[in-house]
Amino acid sequence: MNKKLLTLALALALCLSLAACGGKKEEAETPAETPSETPAETVTLNVAASPTPHAEILNQVKDILAEQGIDLQVHEYGDYVVPNTAVEEGEEDANYFQHIPYMENFNAENGTHIVSVAKIHYEPMGIYAGKCTKLEDLSDGAVIAIPNDATNEARALLLLEAQGLIKLDPDAGLAATPNDITENPKNLSFKELEAAMLPNTITEVDLSVINSNYALQAGFNPTKDALAIESADGTPYPNVLCVKEGRENDPAIQALVKALQSDAVRDYINETYGGAVVPLF
To answer: What's the 3-state SS for the chain?
Structure first.
Protein backbone atom coordinates (compact mmCIF):
# COMPACT_ATOMS: atom_id res chain seq x y z
CA MET A 1 0.00 0.00 0.00
CA ASN A 2 2.80 2.40 0.84
CA LYS A 3 4.60 1.44 -2.34
CA LYS A 4 1.47 2.20 -4.38
CA LEU A 5 1.08 5.59 -2.74
CA LEU A 6 4.74 6.38 -3.33
CA THR A 7 4.47 5.38 -6.98
CA LEU A 8 1.31 7.52 -7.41
CA ALA A 9 2.96 10.52 -5.80
CA LEU A 10 6.02 10.22 -8.03
CA ALA A 11 3.81 9.96 -11.12
CA LEU A 12 1.79 13.02 -10.07
CA ALA A 13 4.95 15.05 -9.46
CA LEU A 14 6.29 14.06 -12.87
CA CYS A 15 3.06 15.21 -14.58
CA LEU A 16 3.11 18.53 -12.80
CA SER A 17 6.76 19.05 -13.74
CA LEU A 18 6.06 18.33 -17.43
CA ALA A 19 3.04 20.64 -17.43
CA ALA A 20 5.08 23.45 -15.93
CA CYS A 21 7.84 22.97 -18.48
CA GLY A 22 5.32 22.85 -21.27
CA GLY A 23 3.73 26.12 -20.06
CA LYS A 24 7.07 27.84 -19.93
CA LYS A 25 7.93 26.69 -23.45
CA GLU A 26 4.60 27.92 -24.82
CA GLU A 27 5.03 31.26 -23.05
CA ALA A 28 8.53 31.64 -24.46
CA GLU A 29 7.32 30.89 -27.98
CA THR A 30 4.56 33.51 -27.79
CA PRO A 31 5.88 36.59 -29.65
CA ALA A 32 6.09 39.75 -27.62
CA GLU A 33 3.54 42.44 -28.58
CA THR A 34 4.99 45.20 -30.78
CA PRO A 35 4.42 48.57 -29.13
CA SER A 36 2.15 50.77 -31.24
CA GLU A 37 3.79 53.79 -32.87
CA THR A 38 2.99 57.09 -31.16
CA PRO A 39 1.43 59.50 -33.67
CA ALA A 40 3.28 62.75 -34.29
CA GLU A 41 1.97 65.60 -32.18
CA THR A 42 -0.21 68.12 -34.02
CA VAL A 43 1.11 71.68 -34.04
CA THR A 44 -1.46 74.46 -33.69
CA LEU A 45 -0.72 77.63 -35.66
CA ASN A 46 -2.79 80.70 -34.74
CA VAL A 47 -2.98 83.41 -37.38
CA ALA A 48 -4.76 86.78 -37.12
CA ALA A 49 -6.30 88.08 -40.34
CA SER A 50 -8.72 90.56 -41.86
CA PRO A 51 -11.91 88.73 -42.90
CA THR A 52 -11.59 89.61 -46.60
CA PRO A 53 -9.52 88.56 -48.44
CA HIS A 54 -6.87 87.43 -45.95
CA ALA A 55 -8.88 84.94 -43.88
CA GLU A 56 -10.50 83.60 -47.04
CA ILE A 57 -7.08 82.96 -48.56
CA LEU A 58 -5.76 81.35 -45.37
CA ASN A 59 -8.73 78.97 -45.27
CA GLN A 60 -7.64 77.59 -48.65
CA VAL A 61 -4.47 76.11 -47.15
CA LYS A 62 -5.92 74.48 -44.03
CA ASP A 63 -6.06 71.01 -45.60
CA ILE A 64 -2.55 71.32 -47.04
CA LEU A 65 -1.15 72.11 -43.60
CA ALA A 66 -3.28 69.46 -41.87
CA GLU A 67 -1.51 66.81 -43.97
CA GLN A 68 1.75 68.05 -42.41
CA GLY A 69 0.41 67.86 -38.85
CA ILE A 70 -0.32 71.60 -38.59
CA ASP A 71 -3.70 72.74 -37.33
CA LEU A 72 -4.19 76.23 -38.82
CA GLN A 73 -6.54 78.37 -36.71
CA VAL A 74 -7.61 81.58 -38.46
CA HIS A 75 -8.85 84.38 -36.19
CA GLU A 76 -10.60 87.31 -37.85
CA TYR A 77 -10.10 90.92 -36.74
CA GLY A 78 -11.92 94.01 -37.96
CA ASP A 79 -9.17 96.55 -37.25
CA TYR A 80 -5.53 97.26 -38.08
CA VAL A 81 -4.15 97.40 -34.53
CA VAL A 82 -4.99 94.29 -32.49
CA PRO A 83 -3.56 91.79 -35.02
CA ASN A 84 -0.10 93.31 -34.45
CA THR A 85 -0.32 93.66 -30.69
CA ALA A 86 -1.59 90.06 -30.47
CA VAL A 87 1.48 88.81 -32.35
CA GLU A 88 3.82 90.98 -30.29
CA GLU A 89 2.34 89.59 -27.06
CA GLY A 90 2.35 85.98 -28.26
CA GLU A 91 -1.42 85.55 -28.41
CA GLU A 92 -1.13 84.88 -32.16
CA ASP A 93 1.72 83.17 -33.98
CA ALA A 94 1.43 85.28 -37.12
CA ASN A 95 -0.79 87.78 -38.87
CA TYR A 96 -1.82 88.43 -42.43
CA PHE A 97 -3.59 91.75 -43.00
CA GLN A 98 -1.10 94.56 -43.62
CA HIS A 99 1.33 95.96 -46.13
CA ILE A 100 5.00 96.68 -45.42
CA PRO A 101 4.81 100.49 -44.97
CA TYR A 102 2.01 100.06 -42.41
CA MET A 103 4.02 97.40 -40.54
CA GLU A 104 7.13 99.57 -40.43
CA ASN A 105 5.19 102.61 -39.25
CA PHE A 106 3.37 100.55 -36.59
CA ASN A 107 6.68 99.27 -35.22
CA ALA A 108 8.12 102.78 -35.11
CA GLU A 109 5.11 104.21 -33.27
CA ASN A 110 4.49 101.32 -30.86
CA GLY A 111 7.91 99.82 -30.18
CA THR A 112 6.82 96.44 -31.53
CA HIS A 113 8.99 93.90 -33.34
CA ILE A 114 6.81 92.69 -36.21
CA VAL A 115 8.64 91.43 -39.32
CA SER A 116 7.55 90.23 -42.73
CA VAL A 117 8.27 86.64 -43.74
CA ALA A 118 6.64 86.60 -47.19
CA LYS A 119 4.92 88.81 -49.75
CA ILE A 120 1.57 87.28 -50.70
CA HIS A 121 -0.63 89.75 -52.57
CA TYR A 122 -1.45 93.35 -53.41
CA GLU A 123 -4.80 95.13 -53.05
CA PRO A 124 -5.15 98.26 -55.17
CA MET A 125 -6.73 101.16 -53.28
CA GLY A 126 -9.64 102.84 -55.05
CA ILE A 127 -11.65 106.06 -55.11
CA TYR A 128 -15.39 105.39 -54.74
CA ALA A 129 -18.41 107.52 -55.52
CA GLY A 130 -20.45 109.01 -52.72
CA LYS A 131 -22.58 112.06 -53.48
CA CYS A 132 -20.40 112.66 -56.54
CA THR A 133 -20.50 109.95 -59.20
CA LYS A 134 -17.75 111.21 -61.54
CA LEU A 135 -14.34 112.68 -60.77
CA GLU A 136 -14.79 115.35 -63.41
CA ASP A 137 -18.02 116.48 -61.71
CA LEU A 138 -16.40 117.02 -58.31
CA SER A 139 -17.58 120.38 -57.00
CA ASP A 140 -15.61 123.13 -55.33
CA GLY A 141 -15.35 122.48 -51.59
CA ALA A 142 -16.19 118.78 -51.91
CA VAL A 143 -15.48 116.46 -48.96
CA ILE A 144 -13.35 113.35 -49.47
CA ALA A 145 -13.05 110.63 -46.83
CA ILE A 146 -9.63 109.02 -46.42
CA PRO A 147 -8.08 106.52 -43.96
CA ASN A 148 -6.66 108.11 -40.81
CA ASP A 149 -3.69 105.76 -40.27
CA ALA A 150 -0.42 107.28 -41.41
CA THR A 151 0.57 105.05 -44.32
CA ASN A 152 -2.87 104.53 -45.82
CA GLU A 153 -3.66 108.24 -45.53
CA ALA A 154 -0.56 109.05 -47.59
CA ARG A 155 -1.49 106.33 -50.03
CA ALA A 156 -4.97 107.84 -50.50
CA LEU A 157 -3.55 111.33 -51.04
CA LEU A 158 -1.07 110.02 -53.60
CA LEU A 159 -3.93 108.36 -55.48
CA LEU A 160 -5.88 111.66 -55.48
CA GLU A 161 -2.75 113.43 -56.71
CA ALA A 162 -2.44 110.91 -59.55
CA GLN A 163 -5.94 111.97 -60.66
CA GLY A 164 -4.88 115.64 -60.78
CA LEU A 165 -7.11 116.66 -57.87
CA ILE A 166 -4.32 117.90 -55.57
CA LYS A 167 -0.56 118.30 -55.49
CA LEU A 168 1.66 117.16 -52.62
CA ASP A 169 5.06 118.19 -51.37
CA PRO A 170 7.30 115.62 -53.12
CA ASP A 171 9.42 115.30 -49.98
CA ALA A 172 6.43 113.95 -48.01
CA GLY A 173 6.36 110.65 -49.92
CA LEU A 174 4.66 107.75 -48.13
CA ALA A 175 4.25 109.89 -45.00
CA ALA A 176 2.10 112.57 -46.64
CA THR A 177 -0.83 114.13 -44.75
CA PRO A 178 -3.31 116.85 -45.77
CA ASN A 179 -0.77 119.34 -44.36
CA ASP A 180 1.56 118.40 -47.22
CA ILE A 181 -0.91 119.51 -49.92
CA THR A 182 0.69 122.33 -51.89
CA GLU A 183 -2.06 122.82 -54.47
CA ASN A 184 -5.79 122.28 -53.94
CA PRO A 185 -7.59 123.99 -56.86
CA LYS A 186 -11.04 122.71 -55.86
CA ASN A 187 -10.62 123.59 -52.19
CA LEU A 188 -11.26 120.00 -51.21
CA SER A 189 -11.59 119.11 -47.55
CA PHE A 190 -10.70 115.75 -46.06
CA LYS A 191 -12.54 113.65 -43.53
CA GLU A 192 -10.05 111.35 -41.82
CA LEU A 193 -11.69 108.13 -40.60
CA GLU A 194 -10.67 104.70 -39.39
CA ALA A 195 -10.24 102.61 -42.54
CA ALA A 196 -12.96 100.14 -41.55
CA MET A 197 -15.51 102.96 -41.30
CA LEU A 198 -15.05 104.31 -44.83
CA PRO A 199 -17.58 102.04 -46.61
CA ASN A 200 -20.19 102.78 -43.93
CA THR A 201 -19.97 106.55 -44.41
CA ILE A 202 -19.70 106.65 -48.19
CA THR A 203 -23.08 108.35 -48.67
CA GLU A 204 -22.13 111.16 -46.27
CA VAL A 205 -19.24 112.45 -48.38
CA ASP A 206 -18.57 113.26 -52.03
CA LEU A 207 -15.87 110.62 -52.49
CA SER A 208 -14.18 107.95 -50.36
CA VAL A 209 -10.74 106.44 -50.82
CA ILE A 210 -11.05 102.89 -49.52
CA ASN A 211 -8.66 99.98 -48.95
CA SER A 212 -9.67 97.03 -51.11
CA ASN A 213 -10.14 94.60 -48.22
CA TYR A 214 -12.84 96.84 -46.74
CA ALA A 215 -14.28 97.59 -50.17
CA LEU A 216 -14.61 93.87 -50.87
CA GLN A 217 -16.18 93.30 -47.46
CA ALA A 218 -18.77 95.97 -48.26
CA GLY A 219 -19.67 94.31 -51.56
CA PHE A 220 -17.71 96.56 -53.92
CA ASN A 221 -15.64 95.19 -56.78
CA PRO A 222 -12.62 97.52 -56.90
CA THR A 223 -11.88 96.81 -60.55
CA LYS A 224 -15.46 97.64 -61.60
CA ASP A 225 -16.86 100.02 -58.98
CA ALA A 226 -13.90 102.30 -58.26
CA LEU A 227 -13.74 105.59 -60.17
CA ALA A 228 -9.95 105.31 -60.10
CA ILE A 229 -7.62 102.63 -58.83
CA GLU A 230 -3.91 102.20 -58.09
CA SER A 231 -1.61 100.38 -60.47
CA ALA A 232 0.03 97.17 -59.28
CA ASP A 233 3.26 97.96 -61.14
CA GLY A 234 6.09 98.47 -58.69
CA THR A 235 3.72 98.81 -55.76
CA PRO A 236 5.30 99.62 -52.39
CA TYR A 237 2.26 98.10 -50.67
CA PRO A 238 2.56 94.29 -50.79
CA ASN A 239 0.39 92.49 -48.24
CA VAL A 240 2.63 90.27 -46.16
CA LEU A 241 2.58 87.38 -43.70
CA CYS A 242 4.12 88.67 -40.48
CA VAL A 243 5.52 87.24 -37.23
CA LYS A 244 7.32 88.56 -34.19
CA GLU A 245 11.04 88.92 -34.84
CA GLY A 246 12.83 85.66 -34.05
CA ARG A 247 10.09 83.35 -35.33
CA GLU A 248 10.81 83.75 -39.03
CA ASN A 249 12.30 80.26 -39.40
CA ASP A 250 9.78 78.28 -37.33
CA PRO A 251 8.98 75.14 -39.37
CA ALA A 252 5.22 75.72 -39.11
CA ILE A 253 5.60 79.33 -40.29
CA GLN A 254 7.73 78.25 -43.24
CA ALA A 255 5.17 75.56 -44.11
CA LEU A 256 2.48 78.25 -44.13
CA VAL A 257 4.59 80.44 -46.43
CA LYS A 258 5.04 77.58 -48.87
CA ALA A 259 1.32 76.81 -48.84
CA LEU A 260 0.31 80.46 -49.36
CA GLN A 261 2.71 80.82 -52.28
CA SER A 262 1.44 77.72 -54.05
CA ASP A 263 -0.09 77.47 -57.51
CA ALA A 264 -3.41 76.50 -55.92
CA VAL A 265 -3.57 79.76 -53.95
CA ARG A 266 -2.53 81.83 -56.98
CA ASP A 267 -5.36 80.27 -58.99
CA TYR A 268 -7.82 80.83 -56.14
CA ILE A 269 -6.92 84.53 -55.88
CA ASN A 270 -7.16 85.14 -59.62
CA GLU A 271 -10.44 83.26 -60.01
CA THR A 272 -12.11 84.66 -56.89
CA TYR A 273 -11.21 88.35 -56.88
CA GLY A 274 -10.87 89.20 -60.57
CA GLY A 275 -8.02 91.71 -60.21
CA ALA A 276 -9.16 93.24 -56.91
CA VAL A 277 -6.48 91.10 -55.24
CA VAL A 278 -3.26 90.47 -57.16
CA PRO A 279 -0.89 87.59 -56.25
CA LEU A 280 2.76 88.63 -55.88
CA PHE A 281 4.43 85.21 -56.23
So the answer is: CHHHHHHHHHHHHHHHHHHHHHHHHHHHHCCCCCCCCCCCCCEEEEEEECHHHHHHHHHCCHHHHHCCCEEEEEEECCCCCHHHHHHHCCCCCEEEEEEHHHHHHHHHHHCCCEEEEEEEEECCCEEEECCCCCHHHCCCCCEEEEECCHHHHHHHHHHHHHCCCCEECCCCHHHCCHHHEEECCCCCEEEEECHHHCHHHHHHCCEEEECHHHHHHCCCCHHHHCCEECCCCCCCCCEEEEEECCCCCCHHHHHHHHHHCCHHHHHHHHHHHCCCCEECC
Tell me if the pTM is above 0.90: no
Q: Calculate the average pLDDT of the chain.
A: 89
CATH, domain 126-229, list 1.20.1080.10, 3.10.20.80, 3.30.1330.30, 3.40.190.10? 3.40.190.10
Whole-number pLDDT of residue 41:
87
